[in-house]
Amino acid sequence: MEQIVSSGIVDSYFKKLKEHLSVDVAIAGGGPSGMIAAYYLAKEGVKIALFERNLSPGGGMWGGAMMFNEIMVQKEVAHILDELNITYQEYENDYCTIDSVHATSSLIYHASKAGAKFFNCTSVEDVVLLDNKVSGVVINWTPIEHARWHVDPLIIKAKAVLDATGHDCYLAKTLEEKNDVKLNTQTGNTIGESSMAVDIAERTIVKNTKEVYPGLYVSGMACNGVCGGHRMGPIFGGMLLSGKKIAEIIIKKLND
Ligand code: 48F
């Protein structure tokens, strides 16, 4: 029994990893925008590997606001909640509140059930840059990153890479810092996030959802970090719309 438990886990894990060394889309970050993108992509049969630095995917959604575990979504986005069978309460005509644990676990469930493969405890530490195109990601165990040990990484090949790393916009910043590249932003660089302005931020996040360099796409808070825009706090309509929009953009690009 002892041996079968271990060999089953090792065999299944390495089968999953081997099958995902080359994917259609590699997603860095399992926050709400990365997971919603994973759901809509996987639903269309796109092969996805989602790398999440933490033990639990979910990013900033679990904690609600100041650990009050409720989040808010605009009512106009309720069709996405309905599609995922997420329970919400209508609030003051135009809004809905949702238990954040229910919302987060539902996104994890639906993205994985649609076929996206999650690799948690795994940090994306760099991108692969071939012929001026982002062509994959460089991954390592998060504990290795924390220990600052010099252990070389593994490489995942991808037709498209999504930076869904939230406020850090880690992939776009790393690409810019390490290479002489010009991003698809007003300045050609990562512009950075501005202070809280909920309504404007929610709108610009969707507008800023795009391919920012050949092969590199942004969703969620990373959009405003890269293209410039405000933060918005515990309201998540923009995150869901951004994840859905980037899935549509990537599917179109993959089919071109
Ligand atoms: O921060 P996060 O939730 O990003 P998001 O999907 O949503 C933003 C909101 O939660 C919130 C907000 C309200 O609307 O403003 O902040 O844009 O999730 C980002 C995830 O990426 C992981 C991180 O642990 C988190 O779960 N992450 C960050 N850097 C890396 C990473 C990395 N280099 N490799 C792998 N995962």
Written overview of the protein:
With 256 residues, the protein is an alpha/beta fold. 40% of the residues lie in helices and 27% in strands. The chain is built from 9 helices and 13 strands. The strands form 3 sheets. Strands 1, 2, 6, 7, 8, 9, 11 and 12 form an 8-stranded mixed β-sheet that branches. A 3-stranded antiparallel β-sheet has the order 3-5-4. Strands 10-13 form a two-stranded parallel ribbon. A hairpin with a 2-residue loop joins β11 and β12 (216-218). The longest helix has 19 residues, at 237-255. The N and C termini lie far apart (50 Å). The mean pLDDT is 97. Ligand 48F binds at residues 28-34, 51-54, 59-61, 123-124, 164-166, 168, 170, 220-222, 231-236, 239.
Task: Tell me the span between the first and last alpha carbons.
Answer: 50 Å
Low-pLDDT regions: none
Using the CA coordinates, give the radius of gyration. Answer: 18 Å
Helical content class = 25-40%
Q: What's the overall geometry?
A: globular
Mind describing the biggest β-sheet? 8 strands, mixed
- SSE string, helices as H and strands as E: HEHEEHEEHEEEHEHEHEEHEH
**Structural classification:** alpha/beta
Number of helices: 9
- What ions, cofactors and ligands are bound? ligand 48F
What's the rounded overall pLDDT mean? 97
Q: How many E strands?
A: 13
- Please indicate the percent range of residues in DSSP E strands (runs of 2 or more): 25-35%
